[in-house]
TrEMBL record:
It comes from Hominenteromicrobium mulieris. This is RNA methyltransferase. Residues 126-267 form the tRNA/rRNA methyltransferase SpoU type domain. CDD domains: SpoU-like_rRNA-MTase. Keywords: Methyltransferase, Transferase. InterPro entries: Alpha/beta_knot_MTases, MRM3-like_sub_bind, Ribosomal_eL30-like_sf, rRNA_Methyltransferase, SpoU_MeTrfase, tRNA_m1G_MTases_N. Residues 14-99 form the MRM3-like substrate binding domain. Transmembrane segments: none annotated. Belongs to the class IV-like SAM-binding methyltransferase superfamily. RNA methyltransferase TrmH family.
Length: 280
């Protein structure tokens, strides 16, 4: 693999890559996103994500050789950049000096990356997030979903971009492997879920709703909906879901943070081994 040296911050290759950090629109139009950091870039390569370009400093190449090697084997173009260029490609205060421009994965009808086509397990449980706008929350939810075995997520309305830098870092690479589908409205999502015989439950902070601990997730197909950080679920989503569920709470707290609520929901969905894993 020939490696090109870049010494100027005015390089068009660097500027085009840096633009992917700035706006979701730039990423969407190009069909590309930026992964930053030795571990995340290596994870992209090992997850069979297509890597269009890799940028790295000489120091990073020495320090993170074991992470960089699989990336260089898979990338289409490799660039060794001067240290002063690295901040242009970084969304962090102290960049490690390794960056990848990745192609957004082609996805199957169920949202899973095409690279996961050997995975033929049915879509049993789905976590639906409506209007989740905090990248840190989104990243945490994706990471937790993969860790607990829920492979399918639906993003409804104005959810933040899963390829945003903070989401990618927070998800610890889960974005590369999870099934993710986007829907403009709650109605659009509900139609698809209902057609797939998936029962939709709206998570709400209401004491008169059904405790989520009583739902028989070990049988049937279920989707639990989590709403916006400040406003919760829209009335449209709540009204058209099959039932409302709540997480039992003690103390004076009125509700959970969105990512915390999602983590509890994901645990309840999978704790009896419904996804093929037993947690005791």
């Amino acid at each position: 693999m020939p490696i090109e040296k870049i010494t100027s911050r005015k390089s068009s290759v660097v500027k085009n890559a840096a633009a992917l950090l700035q706006k979701a629109e730039n990423r969407s139009e190009a069909g590309l996103f930026m992964a930053e950091g030795a571990r995340l870039c290596a994870d992209a390569a090992r997850s069979q994500t297509e890597i269009a370009a890799c940028f790295f400093t000489e120091n990073a190449a020495k320090k993170y050789k074991d992470y960089l090697d699989p990336v260089l084997k898979q990338t289409e173009h490799a660039y060794c950049i001067e240290e002063h260029i690295a901040p242009m490609l970084s969304d962090t205060k102290n960049p490690q000096g390794i960056f990848c421009v990745c192609r957004m994965p082609k996805r199957r009808a169920d949202g899973l990356p095409v690279s996961a086509e050997s995975d033929t397990r049915p879509c049993r449980h789905v976590l639906v997030m409506e209007n989740i706008q905090d990248p840190s929350n989104m990243g945490n939810v994706l990471r937790t979903a993969e860790a607990l075995g829920v492979r399918h997520l639906a993003l409804v309305g104005t959810c933040c971009d899963v390829y945003a830098p903070k989401v990618l870092r927070g998800s610890m690479g889960a974005v590369f492997r999870l099934g993710i589908r986007r829907f403009e409205t709650a109605e659009d999502c509900l139609k698809v879920l209902h057609a797939e015989n998936i029962t939709s439950l709206a998570a709400v902070p209401d004491s008169d709703a059904t405790p989520i601990t009583t739902i028989p997730f070990e049988t049937g197909n279920w989707a639990v909906w989590i709403g916006n950080e400040g406003n919760g679920l829209t009335n449209e989503a709540i009204e058209h879901c099959h039932d409302r569920v709540t997480i039992p709470m003690r103390g004076r707290a009125e509700s959970f943070n969105a990512s915390t609520a999602a983590a509890i929901v994901l645990w309840e969905m999978e704790r009896n081994g419904a996804g093929g894993t037993s947690y005791g």
